C-alpha cells in the first residue's frame, strides 16, 4: 500500500502541490498531512458537493483551501469540526440522514454492499463485521492487508487511492461508498450518482472519529464505541504497567525519496499519546511528520526506534541507512531497541484493528507482561 492513508506517496501530477512547513529545527522539515494529499483519481470529473450534499462542513470547496491543504492550527482542528458529523437517528432506524464532510446524505436502508476508498475505511467496516464488495489499493501493494485477510472476504479492486475506477465501482452496484474529502472530493459528485456517499474530512489522526462516522451508516455506533473503549483500556493498561518509567519512542518510516519521523498528528502519534509514551522533542509538533535526510538519522534516536518501510525496501534508503555508520551510533541501536514493525498496521492501517495490533507490538516490546 502507498505510504499510508495517513500520508500516501503522491503521483507525479500531484507532487507539485506539496507544502512543507519549515520547522525551527536545524535540518528538519515539518510535514502537515494536508500538504501531501490531493484529491484522487485519473477517473475524476468535476468537483463540487454533488448528490444531496451541501457546503462542506469546515472543509471548504477545494482541497487547496487552507482548511484542507495546510497544517498547523487548522489541521489540528479537524476533530473539533467533526463533532457534528453522524446521525441523530435512533439505532436501527432507517431512512437516516448522515451529516459528513460534503454535507448530508440520506440512507434509505441499512447498507449491505459497501465500497471503501481507503485503508482506514477498510479497517473500519471489517472491524464492524462487514465485508466490503469493493476496495482500492495503494500504489505499493495490490493485495489485502495481511492483518485483515481472514475477515475482509474477497472484495473486488476498484482502482487505487490515487486513481479511482468509477466504472468498476458502478458495476458492483453498491448501496454505500465510504471515503474522505481530502482523498476524493473531486469525484464526490460522480460517486454520489452511483450510491449514497459519506466522506470524512481526512484520513489519519482523526481515525476514531472516522470510525464512529462510518459506523453510523450501519447503525453500529454503539459497537464502534465499545471497540474504541476497549482499545483505550488496553492502551491505559500498558501505561499502568510502565508506571513512571516511560521510554521515548520514535516511529520511523522509510519511503521512496524520503525518511520520516512521525509526529503527534499522525495515526501512530495518537496511539503513543493514548498510552502515553513520549516522543523525542523533534517529534513533539502538531503535524504529521518531520522529514530527515540519511545524514540526519541521528535525530531519530530515542529509547526505542520502531521502523517500517513502505513498499519494496530497495525503492527506499532503508538499507543504506541501516547499514551506515551513523545508524550504528544511535543509543536505541546499541541497546538492541531499534526494531522493524509492520508498515501496514503502524502507518497504513488507520483503524481500530490496526491500532490494537500496534498496541500488541508495544506491549511485547516495552511492557511485557502488561
Within the largest sheet, what's the order of strands?
Answer: 1-2-13-12-11-14-15
Helix content: 25-40%
Low-confidence stretches: 1-5, 8-27, 33-70
Order of helices and strands: EEHHHEEEHEEEHEHHEHHEEHEEHHEHH
Radius of gyration: 20 Å
Shape: globular
Averaged pLDDT:
84
**What is the number of beta strands?**
15
Largest sheet: 7 strands, mixed
Can you give a write-up of this model?
The protein has 14 helices and 15 strands. With 370 residues, it is an alpha/beta fold. The strands form three sheets. A seven-stranded mixed beta sheet has the order 1-2-13-12-11-14-15. It has a six-stranded mixed beta sheet with strand order 8-7-6-5-9-10. A two-stranded antiparallel ribbon has the order 3-4. Residues 1-5, 8-27 and 33-70 have low confidence and may be disordered.
Summarize the structure.
This protein has 370 residues and is α/β, with parallel strands linked by helices.
Which SSEs are present, and which pair or pack?
Layout: E1 20-22, E2 29-31, H1 66-69, H2 72-76, H3 78-81, E3 96-100, E4 103-107, E5 114-116, H4 119-127, E6 134-137, E7 156-160, E8 163-164, H5 166-171, E9 176-180, H6 181-184, H7 188-194, E10 197-200, H8 207-217, H9 221-242, E11 249-255, E12 258-262, H10 267-274, E13 289-292, E14 304-309, H11 318-322, H12 331-334, E15 338-340, H13 343-346, H14 352-366
Parallel strand pairs: 5-6, 5-9, 6-7, 9-10, 11-14, 14-15
Antiparallel strand pairs: 1-2, 2-13, 3-4, 7-8, 11-12, 12-13
Helix pairs in contact: 4-8, 8-9, 9-14
